[in-house]
Amino acid sequence: AIAQGNSDLRTFLSLAKTGTRKVMMFHHPDKPELLTNKFLQGHNEIRELAAELNITFFDLMPKYSKFGTAIYRDGIHPNPKGQKVISDAFYDALIPILDTDQSYLKTNVL
Fold first, then answer.
1. Contact status, residue 89 vs residue 60, Cβ threshold 8 Å
2. Cα-based angle 74, 12, 101 (whole degrees, multiple of 5)
């Protein structure tokens, strides 16, 4: 299942990179990953695939670690506080890129 998922992800990311699009990945750690500070099986492969395809990879684990497990509503999904942590991380990652690379203004997609 992991091999098929990685193959599908490779296809998806390769398609996403067509043209001038900038592709970024954000890793949302599951609660068990946060507790152990280790990626679950398959998640390291995702990071390696991003590096291989020259895709910027943002690991949200350091941001999550500041708040602990209080940001989850279950073992995977964020609660409202967790959603705020994610949106702040997206903002922090995107603003410097948007400020320096304004090619996004030439399309209808941000």
1. yes
2. 95
| Rg of the chain on CA atoms, in Å | 15
Six-digit token string for 92? 């922090």
Within 13 Å of residue 3, how many CA atoms lie on the same side as its CB? 0
Nearest CA-CA partner of 1 in 50, 29, 41 = 41
pLDDT tens column, 85-106: 999 999 998 888 776 666 555 5
Q: What angle do CA 88, 41, 36 make, to 5 degrees?
A: 60
- pTM equals 0.74
If residue 89 lies in a helix (H) or strand (E), which one and from where to where?
A: helix 80-100
